[in-house]
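Trying the structure run again after the queue cleared.
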Amino acid sequence: MTGEPTGDDLASRVHPTRDDAVVAALSESVGGPMGDHAAAHRFWSPVRVLLLLTALCFALGMVQKAPCANSVWQNGTENYNNMCYSDLPPLYYGRGLSDGHWPYTDDPVVRGQFEVMEYPVGISYWAWATAEVTRAVAGDDAARDVLTEARLYTAVNAVGFALLALLATWFLAGVSPRRPWDAAGFAVAPTLALTALINWDLLAVTLVAAALWAWARDRPVLTGVLIGLGTAAKLYPLFLLGGILVICLRRLRTRRAGESDPLLDLGAVAGSAAVAWAVANAPAYLSGPAQWRVFWTFNSERGADLGSIWLVLQQAFDHTMTTDVINAVSWIFFGAWCLGVLVLGLRAPATPRLAQLGFLVVAGFLLVNKVYSPQYVLWLLPLAVLARPRWRDLLVWQAGEVVYFAAVWWYLGEYLAPAGGGDSGFYWLAILLRLATQLYLVAVVVRDVVRPGRDPVRPPARPVWSLSRS
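Done. C-alpha cells:
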C-alpha cells in the first residue's frame, strides 16, 4: 500500500477468479477467470476498484435509509416498515448535542435537561464534533428547526462514515499485498450497507482495520496506538491484544539470533495502547468524571436486551434472570472462550494470523453479550473477511445477519407478535440462526488454524478445480 506494485508483486498477486470457486463461477458470465497473460489495467488497480465498490455499497445503504429521512426518523412505524432506523437523530437532540453541550459537562442545568451520552469517549467526541459541524452549516437562526437539523446531522455523519468505510477498505487491502482482493468481502458486504448508519460503530471498525494493517507491517507501537484509540471508541478492539499475545508467545519459541524480541513487541503494543487510551479518555474524565463513568455503569447494570441469547432464554422459559447472574455467566463463558483460543493458538501447527485470533475472540464476546444490536456485525466484518477470505463461508454468515436484520425491525414493529399474544418465536429463531451462522464461520476458522493447509491465505494460489476441497 505504499505505492504502485512492482512487476513481481503483480505476478504473485492472487486474483479472486482463480482462487475462489464462487467468484470463478460468477466470472463465467463475463468471460471466465483471469487468464495467464492478462495484464494490469493502467488505472483500475485492485485498491481503486475496491474503493469504488465500497462507495457504491455505502451509497446503497444511504438509499435504504432514505425513507426515514422524510419523517426525520420520528415515525416508529415507518422506521420499522422500511427497516431504516438510526440512533443518530434522536441522540442529536436527546443528549444536548443540538444545543452545543459538551457530552461530559457537569453543569447541573444541562444534566437536568439531557441524559449523559452512554457511549465510550471516542464516539462521544465524534458525535459532538459532527454536531458542531451541523450547527455551523445550519447557521445561527433563532427560529431553527431541530428536527430539520437532525436530518442534516445524519447527513454530516453519513459523509464521515463513508470516508471511514473507504479508509477501512484501504487498510484491509494493504494487510496482505499479495491478496488485496480479500478486502472485497468488506467493500460489498450487505451488512455494511444495511447497518453502517445505525450508530457510530464504523469509527472503531476503521481503527481495527488500521491496527491489522500496522501489525502486518511490523509496527508494534502504531498497532498499540490504534488499538488504544479503538478501545476508546468501543471496548472490543482491546481483544486484539489477546491475539497479539498468542503470536508473540509463538515467536518467542522460534526466535532466531538477530530477530527482534517478541516480548518487547508485546510490551510496545500493550504500552502504547494503554497510553493512547488514557490520553483519549483524559478530556472526558477531567471535565466530568461522573459523566465519564456512565458508560461503565450503564453496561454493567443493563439486563438482557435485543439480539442476545439471554433474551431468548428469558422469554422462552418465562424467567427473568438478574443482571448479576447474566454478568457472571457471561464473563465466565468469555474467560473460558479466551482460554480456549489461547490454547488453540499455542498448540496450532503454525502461528495463527492476527485476523483469525481476533475474529475468534470477538465472536466469543458477542455470543454471550447482553445485547447484540444489528450493527454489531460490523465489529466482526474486517476480521472475518481476512480470517476466512472465502465467499461461500462469508455469504453463509452474512445471510444469517441479513435475516436477523429484517427480523429485529419486524419484532420491534410487533409484526411478529402471535395473534393470541405472547412472545415471538420467529424472533427467537432469527437470533438462533444468526448465532448459528456465526458459529459456522468460527468452526471454519478454527479448522484453518488446526489445519493450516486449508487456510486460503497461507498456500500459494491454486487452480480453480482444486478449490472444492477448501
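The chain is about 65% helix and 0% strand. Worth checking whether this holds up in the mutant runs.
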